[in-house]
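User: Could you check the structure of this?
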Amino acid sequence: MRTILTMLGMIIGVGAVIATVSLGNGAKSQVEAQIASLGQNVILIFSGSFTRGGVRSGLNGAGTLSVDDAFAIEREIPDVSIVSPEVRGGTQVAAGNQNWGTSIQGEGENYLEIRQWPLSEGSMFTAQDVRGANKVAVIGKTVADQLYPDGEVIGQVMRIKNVPFIVVGELIPKGLSVQGSDQDDLVIVPYTSAMKRLFGSTTLRGITAQAASANLLSSSQKQITDLLRQRHRIRQDQDDDFTVRTQEEIAQAANNASSTMRGLLAGVACVSLIVGGIGIMNIMLVSVTERTREIGIRMAVGAHGRDILMQFLTEAVALSIVGGALGILAGIGGSAFMAAQYGWPVLTPGDWIFYAFIVSAIVGIFFGFYPAWKASQLDPIDALRYE
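Assistant: Sure, the predicted structure tokens are below.
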């Protein structure tokens, strides 16, 4: 019982480390998958985020981007391969006796190519649909399930602000975004239709662009910034009235946030390991005291100090390693339980299991050395007299 209680600190410490790493890596992989769902080599240009009169508006605070800006980026920046003007808004959509509040995105005909977002059925609207501001739409899986529970989607009519649109395509589901919103809860229409028929706007809320390669993201970002500052006649001492972000920056920001949380949890888990090591040292000191006479007998029949040292050090390391092994099982089991119970993503890397064994042995050596050294320094005569 005493041995089990001694190992409990190591079990909790190692288990906490394994569970923390598993949850942290699972969250990281989920974030990376969500970032990848944005598409490849994506550059996002947002309207707003400027300061005027001491007031900073924030993203999408003002309609400062125009369709001509999008055309200029596509025409004048060779590193950018595809551009899609973007208009956003939220409203109720209806089909038959079903209705649903969703997000409406006005986009160009190449938007799905930028996002690397295939269709489960149907097709994307065409450049002719964009030029003619035609009433056609592509919908996400969530909207399809809410408006068309019978599964018949393509060719159906949906009403957006009482304007009839024909559904021409349904998107493959992508799940949650980095911000936690449902990416499948949207309706995509030509941006010209959104501007003229739905929102009556003359400006864009954003522009989505794609660099020709990942190596060109930074240079493309700078070129877009310089071009828009020139087009918007922004002086050197003025802030931008737009914001340009690359996919790499978004991924870095998300990973930084998750890394901070992982570091905090790992720190707490390491404290548990230290407490477990102190528990091992404590019980080994008690063991040395209780077995003083045994140590004296061993020395009397020829055992050297190093033999006593190795005996007690081996016991400490054995306690630590067995506790670490049980902790690894507890950590993996706890991670699996949280994944099944709460749906959290978990990913346990094999190298961390190896590291856990090594750390367990190091803790055993570090905290077991002093009791073992103390035992090896006992005088045989005093030890034999000890009662």
